[in-house]
Amino acid sequence: MSKAFTKETETEEDLPDEAEALPPGVKNYITPQGLQRLRDELKYLRTVDRPKVVDVVSWAAGNGDRSENGDYLYGKKRLREIDRRMRFLIKRIEIAEVVDPARQTNRDQVFFGATVTYIDAHDTERTIRIVGVDEARHEHNEISWISPIARALLKAGEGDSVNVRTPNGIESIEVLKIAYQDA
Q1: 70-103 pLDDT, tens per residue?
Q2: Cα–Cα distance measured from residue 83 to residue 46, given in angstroms and rounded to the nearest whole number
Q3: Cβ neighbours of residue 7 under 8 Å, at least 6 residues apart?
Q4: Which domain covers residue 62, as residue numbers?
Q5: How many domains does the chain have?
Q6: With contact defined as beta carbons under 8 Å apart, do 131 and 113 qualify?
Q7: CATH code, 70
Q8: How many Å apart are CA 85 and CA 134, to the nearest integer?
């Protein structure tokens, strides 16, 4: 659709709800470190980022005509984004169920919070950590516990082979090592 047929300003109803990323009926498991990262981000948005943008918007509003004032228009849009992210974080923190991997007693099997080293069918060795939906960071080899590979690995032990459904079909992987981080 052409930009000419879209609204210039967005309302709350126009914005998709980020909270829909969690599948229905799935608990929002999170590690203590992941929960702390969410709380830190919320605190930063409240105390640093939002006040800065409010100052810019206030200054820009004082400059007169707001319809062509880029600082004002961008600032208002950024405030909506920050407020939306803050609401999302508050909802996720409220429904979070903290699971501390350090308290895992059965360390011979893969459960939430485990760091798993496995080898795939192409003899490629990989190490991943199974974490909550809101804390998965691929650049740190952290994957969500609801991802296909994590689901396949859950309850597996060292030396076990499990099948993972991939875009290229079913692939077999073998668990080499299981570890849990102590806090």
Answers
A1: 888 999 999 999 999 999 999 999 999 999 998 8
A2: 9
A3: 14
A4: 27-98
A5: 2
A6: yes
A7: 1.10.287.180
A8: 13
